[in-house]
Specification:
466 residues; alpha/beta; 6-stranded mixed sheet; 16 helices
């Protein structure tokens, strides 16, 4: 017993001294140096340790690292022997041959079966994984699991007895919040996927001109949608119930991006909805997290002014003006936002590329060809009401947009009810039909968030089956 106690005390003191004065300072120094190296060379994150070693001492450090790995593996092997021996002594492991290598210390043992098993396992893992990346991943999971069992799990189990004495309250809060976030995210994602699958095709837009019952009414319409690419399915539903379209129609999508503020000349991204004679536009309005949505009058003024600039630029593209003086400002306008903060994510870049990438056949077309197409359409279909006034020059088109704004702006907002399909499971029906709809009806409505005036608001109801 005395020998065992002395041996235990010796191990404890040795570990305490070595960890406090050697291991811990060395680790802090190494990790601090690697962190400083990564701040300067972030591209070398995959192999930070060896990349951060200066050239003259690379091989000496490599030898030391290999020696440390050998010592660490020997410690793991010795630990395996000790654990198996103790497990066998308390009846938790099958019988194996245990050889005591020391007559003084009971814990120093050797198990041949375990030694050969570890050797074979090392060879198999090395051949199967082939790279140190997979071995490192397995090691990382093992270390975190050990921490969970030996530390975090013990801390948690030590307070579980308080569950019935009021400790259930934070768990209830966490469960409720996780349920709300999970339901909202799932249905919101399915709703967006539904809109992507059912977005309006180009053929439908071209067929609008052949429908004699559709009229163009004076004014400008803003149809709000979360869909960034394409036209939402709420539009044909709106046309079928109210066969009238404003003389200028803009599909507006409001998006928040992870920068503080967005400059006014970089806030609105436009794109024509083909055919261009329809005077329909796609517009993504970007706000930073410190930006506030303007009052309706100011928002309309800013959008129309930026729309005029877009029409101006598109006119020069159609006329074949592709000099650097005309092209560079457009590229700079939408690239400066990405360089300003350095934190803009890929989704924002995707939005910009989708809206600003020119349609090559449309850009290479000349104004004469456009007029000829318009003339053909007007001559072959005299009842075509969707193309009220053919596109003439740039001044006429800008004046047409300004007049449409002066005639009044109407906000079109989709009132979408999301329901589960008939073949859906009972659980999905509960989540979609009841839980999600309850959350949607009790949260802030779209017109309040966007500060849309009720006098100029038109709601369009539609049901999505997901």
């Amino acid at each position: 017993m005395w020998n065992s106690a002395c041996y235990t005390l010796f191990i404890f003191v040795s570990i305490l001294i070595s960890f406090s004065f050697i291991t811990f300072p060395a680790l802090v120094t190494a990790y601090s140096g690697q962190a400083a190296y990564l701040r300067k060379f972030p591209e070398n994150v995959r192999n930070t340790f060896y990349d951060s070693i200066p050239g003259p001492i690379y091989w000496p450090t490599f030898v030391v690292a290999v020696a440390a790995a050998i010592i660490a593996s020997q410690a793991m092997i010795s630990g395996t022997f000790a654990i198996l021996s103790q497990s066998q002594s308390i009846g938790c492991f099958p019988r194996v041959k245990v050889i005591h290598t020391s007559s003084k210390y009971e814990g120093q043992v050797y198990i041949p079966e375990a030694n050969y098993t570890l050797m074979i396992a090392c060879v198999i893992v090395t051949v199967a994984f082939k790279t140190t990346d997979k071995i490192g991943n397995a090691y990382g999971i093992a270390v975190v699991t050990v921490m969970l069992i030996t530390t975090e799990g013990i801390y948690l189990s030590s307070v579980l007895y308080k569950f019935t004495q009021g400790g259930f309250l934070p768990l209830v809060f966490a469960f409720v919040l996780m349920t709300i976030m999970g339901i909202w995210h799932y249905v919101h994602k399915e709703r967006y996927t539904f809109e992507l699958r059912n977005k309006v095709s180009n053929d439908f837009m071209k067929e609008l001109a052949t429908k004699p019952n559709i009229n163009r009414i004076p004014g400008m319409g803003f149809l709000y949608s979360e869909l960034v690419q394409g036209i939402p399915p709420i539009f044909p539903h709106f046309v079928s119930n109210i066969p009238s379209i404003h003389s200028v129609l803009v599909f507006v999508s409001i998006k928040s991006i992870p920068i503080s503020k967005v400059a006014l000349d970089e806030r609105f991204l436009f794109r024509h909805v083909e055919p261009r004679d329809y005077r329909m536009f796609r517009c993504v309005v970007r706000y930073g997290y410190n930006d506030k949505i303007e009052e309706p009058k100011e928002f309309e003024r800013q959008l129309v002014e930026q729309l005029k600039e877009f029409i101006n630029l598109e006119h020069f593209k159609l006329e074949g003006v592709t000099t650097e003086q005309m092209v560079e400002p457009v590229n700079f306008q939408h690239s400066s936002l990405l360089e300003k903060d350095g934190k803009t994510k890929g989704s924002t870049i995707h939005i910009e590329e989708a809206l600003q990438q020119p349609n090559l056949p449309r850009v290479s077309s000349s104004s004469n060809s456009i007029h000829s197409v318009n003339a053909t359409n007007n001559s072959t279909n005299s009842s075509n009401r969707i193309i009220s006034v053919p596109i003439q020059g740039i001044e006429e088109e800008i004046a047409f947009v300004q007049k449409a704004m002066e005639n009044g702006v109407v906000y079109l907002l989709g009132e979408v009810d999301v329901v589960a399909e008939q073949k859906s499971s009972f659980f999905k029906k509960i989540v979609v039909n009841y839980a999600y709809n309850f959350l949607r009806k009790n949260c802030r409505q779209g017109e309040k968030v966007l500060e849309i005036p009720h006098a100029r608001l038109v709601r369009v109801g539609m049901t999505y089956e997901i």
